[in-house]
Amino acid sequence: MRQPLAALLWRTALAAALVCGIGLLPWLSRTDPALTVLKARSAERDPAPEVLADVRAQLGLDSGPLSLLGQWLGGLWRGDAGRSWISGGEVLPEVLRALGASLLLMSVALLVAFVTAALVCARTLHLGARRRLDGGSGGGGSAVLAALPEFLVASVLATVVGVHLGWLPALGWYGPQWTVLPALALGLPAGAVLGRLLDDLLPGAFAEPWALATAAQGLPARCVARRAVRRCVPALLPNLGLFVVGLTGGAVAVEQVFDIPGLGRTTLQAALAQDLPVLQAGTLALVLLAAVATGACRLAARLLAGPALRAGALTTLHRPSPPTRRVQPFAYGALLVAVVALGLPRDPLALDTGERLRAPSLAHPFGTDALGRDLLARVGHGALDTLLLALGISAVALCAGVLLGLLPRLSGPLADTVNAVPPVLGALLVTAAVGGGTATPAIAVAAVAWTPLAAHTSALLTQERATEHFAAARQFGAGPWYLLRRELLPAVLPPVTRHALVRLPGIALALASLGFLGLGAQPPSPEWGLLLAENQPYAERAPWAVLAPAAVLALLGAFAVTAAGGVRWPGRRRGRTGNHTSGEAPARPSPVTKELVEAR
After folding, report:
1. Beta-carbon count within 10 A of 135 CB
2. Measured between alpha carbons, how far is residue 227 from residues 125, 136, 211, 230 in Å?
3. What is the spatial distance between Cα 385 and Cα 450, in angstroms, rounded to a whole number?
4. pTM of the model
5. pLDDT tens-digit readout, 194-206
6. Terminal Cα-to-Cα distance of the chain (whole angstroms)
7. Which tens digits make up the pLDDT trace of 395-429?
8. In the chain, how long is the greatest CA-to-CA distance?
9. Residue 64, exposed/middle/buried by CB under 10 A (0-12, 13-18, 19+)?
10. In angstroms, how far is CA 555 from the centroid of its own chain?
């Protein structure tokens, strides 16, 4: 009873800290909220002192942020979230309408994601169910999908499918058919990531004794595949809960492109206008959604795992695989390095208005942008900012995710709360706290990038602690350090590291999204997100201006996903169908080690 109560109190404290921090946003950023609200109401009105004083009196700003926060919290208990500082309307109906639109979009996007994930895993399921799995897996196609910028997919779908072909509506939110294009833009990249994570677990499930027994009994292959998916899903459900919240509040760019009145767009507009009642209510709705979604996913994971989880009768899904010589990561990596190497000697800032929007040629292999600048040069120089920054953030996220994942009672509620903050709002909070600059988007992305890795680590640890070999090791007297170093980390670190590599393009995309929305790098920086934002208006006339940075992002995704397949625990070898074993051979093994080896 104490543990659930402590977790509830910790989650409540985090949510309260987040909402209170947002309530102090204008004062933390050292801006005049009256001036910001006046500009949002009427940009042409003269901000005279008497006008600003009237706005302060209307909003009660002179009483201070703590008094305003107390009034808002007091009304919240009565179901009153206040009135918008901009429109003057009631906040709660507005936020509920935006939440309803986002939930509908999220539901359709999840359906698209599940279909995409099934297609990504189709080869492994087909071969594994028929006992013909050779250890290889796909990855190129799913990597490209995972690395496609959501806002770019949204723009292409809106322009081509919605405007030119006229098959589906491109703008607005008036019925179910308006959900198709934005759901595709959100669901395809999310499904590619989920499919890669599931594809990473399936070989271990097909190697378990039950799979061998069902195959020997002659059960249909589809039954074996269905049970393998069921065996792997509990380890992925915590991440699915994070996806639910991310697709609801983090779809800001897609909602902007398709003009959808969703919760992400509503919170962004409220944050930019410093409309605190709307911003606080929207953030609180996301936090509550995160608590409900992650709680439901964790409960579903326990139900799917069944009594074996409580009895410690599971077998590990993570077995050493044979070393493979794969050409794909070397080819993708060499091509990426070649693009960067060819672009670095060129000047990314040289202007030539006579060469603006030129198609690719020998002189300009990637073409030129609207100012006549060479796109190959800008892509090559932008790699130094985008790639190095994304790699650094991924490394920090991996370390933080693993360390916090080892403490699930601490990191679980923290990850849920942090993940509920859209990256755009996180960037605004970071800007308010530490000021603007080139480091702002990096800090904002790093603050949330660890959450899926921590959830993955915690889920895998829960599975591994319920395995038979872990129970045997504890019964034979193995200490906590031995269990962590020899039993848990070898099973957790390789898949989580592969997960971090799969997320590498997503880190770059998060930075690109902030650049696309004007919160990241500023001109004339050649950062890839800024390149996409600058050239987006010319996508119809000069598609190469957008396709060049998008293709390099997709190439980065293909390299990261295919290279992730080679990540293994150092010194591991394949020699059994059972559990992991270390390649180390100590000169004088201890009695505990001897018993552990014999027990395995």
Report:
1. 11
2. 11, 21, 9, 5
3. 21
4. 0.77
5. 888 888 888 888 8
6. 36
7. 999 999 999 988 888 877 888 788 777 666 777 67
8. 85
9. exposed
10. 19
